[in-house]
Amino acid sequence: MRIKHLTAIALCAVVSGCTSSESTTKAPAPSARVSQAAPSVSSALPVEAKAERDARMEWWRAARFGMFIHWGVYSVPAGTYNGQQVPSLGEWIMYNGKIPVAEYAKYAERFNPQQFDADQWVQIAQNAGMKYMVITAKHHDGFAMFHSKVDGYNIYDATPFKRDPLAELASACQRHGMKLGFYYSQCQDWHHPGGEARPRAGQASGHWDAAQDGDFDAYLRNVAVPQVKELMTNYGKVSVLWFDTPFKFMTPPRVQLFPALFNLQPGIIVNNRLGDGFKGDTETPEQRIPPTGYADGRDWETCMTINDTWGYKSYDTHFKSTQTLLRNLIDIASKGGNYLLNVGPTSEGIIPAPEVQRLAEMGQWLKTNSEAIYGCGPTAFGSEAGSYSTRPGTTRPTFTAAWDWRCTTKPGKLYIHLFKWPDGKFDLAGVKGQVAKAYLLADRQALTVMQTGGDVSVALPASAPDANASVLCLELAGMR
């Protein structure tokens, strides 16, 4: 269910553990809602009407393409600890290297991203054709990438930088018309006492340093909840809130500490990773594309890396090709989802050049073919959906579909994304309606069409206009 016309005061009154400052917070004009699932979380809360939900989700469903940004103090070691490359993800170096809390905290003294330029980052995203950005406000290492008054372990107070990049990014997004979202690791925190870590098999906690031990509920009350409140109140319009890794610790009573804060941002979209019983607004498949999307109509968003890591690792040069990235975007859109594609900036504040290059090339393709992505619905067919698999031992998806095309739709239009160029003509079965016009988005020149019932054949030029994907548009008579 969703909270409808519920103030922060009302929800805090029924939630155990709210601080006195939270319980006296004045809520904005009532209009925010939060998706919930389990009766233990929200059984008494009214349901958001479908029309209200559709209106709230409209911009997100039309966007199809966003930028994920994993940036933090982990970009300083950049995957190497004590002269040794630490396997796995760059942002997990503290956990995988079992770096003591005090020792890891010293990386903040070397974190001074003087080349960070918020307007440049927004421009990179816009040049790629991305419609929204989600940046890590606090990842699992517990380091806040904003000027938090809750705790001094943040980029303003603990580093020589003495700036708030989230505030600068929020201003840049407002100037350039970009939607902004924040990622926050609410459960897994390797720095603050009581913050949890991924448990090992047979263990109740994943802690490796006594400094991490403490009361989890106290951590939630004193760090996580008030920091999320800061994010919801100090940075203007926030369009997305992206939680992560709740594990077993985020029980329904603990989940209940957060939803009142969402009312501070009317219309905010929240993902499904807050904790047990919280369904949220969006499913979040990670590093994979569901073969046929979500049959129950759930909104969903695949998050994926450009190389093999989220946070910056200096030696990870295993970048996906522009073709793979574009076909991922097309594949996801054809199944009704969004593509949240990650960049991992350096400790200097630079988005790596190979990532910028690929994003710019994606943007060039979208300049020609944007109408076949933005605001489009999923395929009108289904069997061509195909799938992606993951090679053993890697997070890199491999294109394994037997079909050579995808389809996106708008009222009265079918967009056929051709990955493999047909020999002279493209044959399509199961078309519902009469094709009135056919053309490639690359030049919009009319193509010859033969149709018998639902069987359509379109004559094509000898060569593809784009080696990555060429889009054939079929306009259907009498359908708008």
How is this structure best described in words?
- This protein has 480 residues and is α/β, with parallel strands linked by helices.
- The chain is 24% helix and 17% strand.
- It has 13 helices and 18 strands.
- The strands form five sheets. The protein has a seven-stranded parallel β-sheet. Strands 12-13-18-15 form a four-stranded antiparallel β-sheet. Strands 14-17-16 form a three-stranded antiparallel β-sheet, with no helix packed on it.
- Strand 10 and strand 11 form a beta hairpin.
- The chain is elongated and about 75 Å long.
- Mean pLDDT is 88; it is low at 1-32, 34-46 and 386-402.
Work out the helicity level.
Answer: 10-25%
Report the end-to-end length measured between terminal Cα atoms: 33 Å
CATH superfamily of the largest domain: Glycosidases
Query: Which CATH C-level class of the largest domain is it?
Result: Alpha Beta
Round the mean pLDDT to the nearest integer and report it.
88
Tell me the Rg in angstroms. 24 Å
Give the quaternary arrangement of the chains: single chain
Query: How would you sum up the major sheet?
Result: 7 strands, parallel
- The low-confidence runs, each spanning 5 or more residues with pLDDT under 50, are 1-32, 34-46, 386-402
Strand order of the largest sheet: 7-6-5-4-1-9-8
CATH architecture of the largest domain: Alpha-Beta Barrel
Q: Strand share of the residues?
A: 15-25%
Kindly name the structural category: alpha/beta
Number of domains: 2
Count every beta strand, where a strand is a DSSP E run of 2 or more residues.
Answer: 18
Molecular shape: elongated
